[in-house]
Design a protein that fits this description.
Blueprint: E1 3-7, H1 11-22, E2 26-31, H2 54-71, E3 79-88, E4 108-109, E5 119-128, H3 130-143, E6 147-150, E7 162-165, H4 171-174, E8 181-191, E9 198-201, E10 206-210, E11 214-218, E12 222-223, H5 232-245, E13 254-264, E14 269-273, E15 276-280, H6 286-302
Parallel strand pairs: 1-2, 1-7, 2-6, 3-9, 7-15
Antiparallel strand pairs: 3-5, 4-5, 8-11, 8-12, 8-13, 9-10, 10-11, 14-15
Length: 303
């Protein structure tokens, strides 16, 4: 059993902490932001793989899919399975990550498409309501004997403990990694008007992700932008694009606006260097690959 300090209290850090605690390690999570203050709390969080390296993303995403499927039985976790469609503007659109889907989940060709799209692939995937889920993860860490503490670090901890660097955008400083940069994502939350399926146009990017009491509309992916202030013009564009995909959203009451800074990097960094395990650079794919990455982190800690 090792003492492990996990730096970062977003979905990656908390997932790693849970798996490490389940493996018998002593774990303390520290971060500048508490879970509900992290970028993870902004995520629409429909399971949808992207990022690199692709072969690992497929493996990580499949492991996460299976873990989320089990969590659907726990109402307190905020995880449900929903049918949705990935939209393409050309008829030959396909998914490089189709092997991450379990048998029976799809994808199947969609015949009923919004205007402007040439093809679509429909599948059944987890949708995670992040404020609920982050509370569940935090409670799980504490239930297993771990802690979650606010701590503003200027460098990774040193000492006897092994460190898991899951600091997201903070890895630019804490990991000395200048390849990490923000990818600004803005979303609009509107009232739930009876939407029960998700839609994603990854090219735009546009998405409609229903939750229990609201619908998350997105989005943007502005590289190198640090501002967390919602832009009214961007919000108007998001609302317009979402209504073209799902007309029932036209005129839906806006509940709030949110901005998150995804930790962009050319590829995910997941490796052990001495007494530090680095696990960051997931961009907007953190939720989708979280449990798979956490499993690999445990293997590196134990190795």
């Amino acid at each position: 059993m090792r003492r492990v300090i996990v730096v970062g209290a977003g979905v990656i850090g908390l997932s790693c902490a849970v798996r490490l605690l389940e493996a018998g390690h002593r774990v303390d999570v520290v971060g500048r932001d508490l879970p509900l203050e992290t970028t993870s709390s902004v995520a629409a969080a429909v399971w949808s793989p992207y990022s690199r390296p692709q072969e690992h993303v497929v493996r990580w995403a499949r492991a996460a899919y299976d873990a989320f499927a089990e969590l659907c039985d726990d109402e307190s976790a905020g995880v449900v399975m929903r049918t949705g469609t990935e939209l393409f503007r050309e008829s030959s659109g396909d998914l490089w990550w189709r092997d991450a889907l379990p048998p029976g989940a799809g994808p199947d060709r969609e015949t009923s498409l919004p205007a402007g799209y040439a093809s679509g692939l429909t599948m059944r995937t987890p949708v995670i309501e992040m404020p609920v889920y982050l509370r569940w993860l935090s409670a799980r860490v504490e239930q297993l004997g771990g802690t979650v503490t606010r701590m503003n670090l200027s460098a990774l901890p040193t000492g006897d403990a092994l460190v898991v660097n899951a600091s997201g955008i903070g890895a630019r400083l804490l990991g000395g990694d200048r390849t990490v940069s923000p990818v600004r994502g803005q979303v609009v939350l509107v009232e739930q008007v009876g939407i029960d399926r998700w839609w994603i146009d990854a090219e735009t990017p546009s998405y409609v992700v229903p939750r229990a009491h609201d619908v998350v509309l997105g989005g943007t992916a502005v590289e190198g932008e640090w501002s967390r202030t919602p832009d009214p013009a961007v919000a108007a564009s998001i609302l317009e694009r979402a209504a073209r995909i799902e007309p029932r959203l036209a005129g839906a009451r806006v509940l709030r606006h949110k901005v998150g800074l995804r930790p962009g990097r050319p590829s995910v960094r997941l490796e052990r260097v001495g007494e530090v395990v680095h696990c960051y650079g997931h961009g907007g794919c953190g939720v989708t690959v979280s449990w798979g990455c956490a499993d690999d982190v445990v293997g590196l800690v134990d190795g």
